[in-house]
Amino acid sequence: MNSPIAPPPASAPPAGSPAPFPRPGSSLYHALATVPAAQRPALRQWLRWWHDVASIPFGVSDPGVAETKLRWWQQELADAARGQAHHPLLRDWPGDAQDPSARPDAPLWHAQIEAALQLVQQTRWMDEASVQRHARQGTGAACEGAAWLLGARSEAARHAARELGLGLHQAHQLARLGQDARLGWVHPAISVLQTHGVRAHELSKPAETPPAGLASLVQHLHHQARDTLRGALHAVEALPSPERRACQPLCVLAHIQLAQMVAIEARSDRLLHERIVLTPLRKWWIAQQVRWGLLR
């Protein structure tokens, strides 16, 4: 007999069909599973748009082509504001298309495009303030928009969601430290690298022996993201009960990243050469614990 709390099996899509979104077993997949069914279509649409736009700098090798695609999205947002959207992600929005509250505020859409444009136009950040500003424009705005769609719309709730986005961005960049550096992006600020005695080329072209300051750098990035996420989770806990429940999917993502960073720090010597991730089963279990109120 199957266990009543066993995770659903992740079946492959039929040949020739589009890949499912979110990918079964991914963090977004388990977070979306905690959303009430009525709210799920709009949130999935928002997350798909965020994912597609954020992927352009990494998926398009020619910076000029990547910028053209992002500028097209800027025009598409302007057309959508006049009721003339062309792309299905904007044209076929779930729910009442005439209700202005059915979609996140326009600045949240535009902020994410600006964040993606920054990735096309630069591969280094001078100081930590610039890195955090970029993160709040991208993942921060995405999480704030998600909170809006889920009904967490007070200024306190939007701020907590934005800070969760900052922490998720910090944790994600730690997880992709070596992978992104090999693609040309060194995300830790130059000032942070200098503090820990790590040079950019030691990340982008890593030797088999890790640089002497890598463990210290990873610990710094881990603690920074951990503190941001814990502070944001504390802010969520202070919200009224309906808004606190609405933010639960974002809290799932936060706790998955907190667990993943512990795994990363324990194997920091391999971070530049391999991606250290949690298993889908571990992510499912974390999501269940958040649902049951065992993780806050």
Task: Describe what this molecule looks like in 3D.
This protein is mainly α. It has a single domain (27-93, 103-291), classed as Farnesyl Diphosphate Synthase, CATH 1.10.600. Helices cover 63% and strands 0% of the residues. It has helices at residues 27-32, 40-59, 63-81, 88-91, 106-121, 128-149, 155-175, 177-183, 190-195, 200-204, 214-237, 241-246, 248-266, 280-291. α13 crosses α14. The longest helix has 24 residues, at 214-237. The model is unreliable at 1-15 (pLDDT under 50).
Radius of gyration: 19 Å
Proportion in β-strands: under 5%
- Give the uncertain stretches in residue-range form: 1-15
Total number of domains = 1
Category by helix and strand content = mainly alpha
Distance between the termini: 32 Å
Number of strands: 0
Reading off the top of the CATH hierarchy, the class is best stated as Mainly Alpha
SSE string = HHHHHHHHHHHHHH
Query: What is the CATH-assigned architecture?
Result: Orthogonal Bundle
The proportion of residues forming helix, as a percent range, comes to 55-70%
Fourth CATH level, the homologous superfamily: Farnesyl Diphosphate Synthase
Task: Indicate the CATH topology.
Answer: Farnesyl Diphosphate Synthase
Major beta-sheet overview: none
Contiguous helical run count: 14
